[in-house]
Write a structure and sequence with these properties.
It is built from 13 helices and 16 strands. The chain is α/β, with parallel strands linked by helices. It folds into 2 domains: 133 residues, no CATH class; 215 residues, 2-enoyl-CoA Hydratase, Chain A, domain 1, CATH 3.90.226.
Length: 441
């Protein structure tokens, strides 16, 4: 009996030395994708109020991500996976803007044509001088009342600036927003998901923890424009869209045109870097109006390197009042209370590779986001995930898989937890002890 116990302990706590069937780069790609899964699972608002089985989506794509042998294939599979969210603000960032040599200090500039005012930005390099840009924008305000229509052509060929200010800040601080409307406008509210502890995923969990929304109400803009003036915002991914554009569009005073699928909005997305220098933008908030309806809609326009999109936008502006009927997607009423974003699923004691990758990602994410003493742990939690993920992947049977789970669990150094196997009609607790509790240090 003592020899059997000693053998079990040796199997439980020794590190696996088997030859890994995948390269370190392939494991790293899957590891980082698991972190993306967790970030979206608990912070992306669409997962909270849309019927998206994000667990199964990751389990389905995990083997494909692991098999990816090139940056191009990896990026393609990541984008295909993220596209399940149906969110233009979450995805792989690719820059297709043409490399054009321009005067970087001249913008923004304004010109007239047929009583239509066009304000153009082709570079953001000159925006390092904050006061200078504010002065230029302030000078445009008196012109708005003289225009039959206004086109903001904000399609810079670069996205580099030395400061942290966004176009939203320039619009707000310059004071030009009141000159864009003839009625009171409420700018969009920013809504985020938050938690009190880890929300329950099954009947075995407590009910004291739950998700909820936090909302930052948008500013109220009082009008200084005496008449309705149609406006078109033509933008690309290199500049954020001023938020008032979405409110003006909702009131049928503006149209938002975007080159491509990715709409850039301030404080709504966060960058996330993956292996192979792959950049993602991930949504962490959403813009809603006072009733909770989404304001994030736009008309997509194909990127045109021949310079014809400005003329298309001007043509649309000229026919704005007669041609634009406010045709837009139906407003989606968002629940006032998010759910736990979890779906029940039955897997065998030895799940397939995708669900084993999901198990590792879930253990990592729950501790990373919800364990209050993570920073007091003896080892870096990221390094533990990095070291043990291959053992989840290479497990050949349920015993090897259970050992991989147990090895990861032993670093969760607190008595407020347990490891169990759920079998219909009974619950079997696994007698695994964690490493020395951090409270004893």
């Amino acid at each position: 009996m003592c020899k059997q116990i000693a053998l079990i302990c040796l199997l439980l706590f020794r590190e696996g030395n088997a030859q890994a069937p995948y390269s370190p780069v392939q494991y790293l790609r899957l590891e980082e994708a698991g972190k993306v899964w967790g970030h979206i699972k608990y912070l992306h608002p669409f997962v909270q109020h849309h019927s998206i089985n994000w667990d199964s989506a990751f389990a389905a794509v995990a083997p494909t991500l692991l098999e990816s042998t090139s940056k191009l294939a990896y990026a393609k599979h990541i984008q295909g996976w993220l596209s399940l969210l149906d969110d233009p603000l979450t995805g792989v960032v690719t820059s297709n803007t043409p490399k054009v040599k321009i005067d970087t200090t001249a913008y923004p500039i304004a010109h007239w044509k047929d009583s239509v005012l066009t304000i153009t930005i082709r570079s953001l390099q000159g925006f390092t001088n904050f006061n200078n840009i504010l002065s230029r924008l302030e000078a445009f305000a008196p012109l708005f009342s003289k225009a039959k229509g206004i086109l903001f052509d904000f399609r810079p060929v670069d996205n580099g600036r030395s400061d942290d200010l966004a176009m939203e800040d320039y619009f707000a601080y310059s004071g030009i927003e009141p000159y864009l409307t003839d009625t009171v406008i409420q700018k969009p509210a920013v809504r985020r998901i938050a938690y009190t502890g880890f929300p329950p995923e099954d009947e075995l969990s407590g009910s004291a923890y739950y998700p909820y929304y936090t909302t930052k109400i948008g500013a109220t803009v009082f009008p200084k424009l005496l008449r309705k003036c149609p406006i078109v915002f033509l933008v690309n991914e290199n500049v954020d869209l001023p938020l008032i554009a979405l409110s003006l569009q909702e009131s049928r005073r503006a149209i938002v045109l975007n080159e491509g699928d990715y709409l850039n909005l301030k404080d709504i997305t966060l960058p996330h870097y993956l292996p192979d220098s792959l950049l993602l933008k991930i949504r962490v908030a959403e813009l809603v109006n006072a009733t909770g309806a989404s304001l994030e809609y736009f008309q997509r326009i194909e990127r045109d390197e021949q310079g014809r999109n400005q003329e298309k936008a001007l043509s649309m502006l000229r026919h704005f009042i007669n041609a634009f009927d406010g045709n837009k997607p139906a407003k989606v009423q968002i629940e006032t209370k998010p759910h736990s974003a979890s779906f029940g699923y039955n897997t065998p004691l030895f799940p397939h590779l995708g669900y084993r990758a999901l198990a590792a990602a879930k253990i990592f994410t729950v501790i990373d986001y919800f364990f209050p003493y993570k920073n007091l742990m003896e080892y870096s939690w990221d390094s533990i995930y990095h070291k043990l993920l291959p053992q989840f992947i290479t497990a050949k049977d349920s015993v090897a898989y259970s050992l991989a789970v147990a090895k990861m669990y032993r670093f969760y150094k607190t008595a407020m937890g347990s490891l169990m196997v759920l079998i219909p009609g009974k619950i079997n607790f696994i007698p695994v002890h964690s490493r020395r509790p951090f409270m004893q240090k």
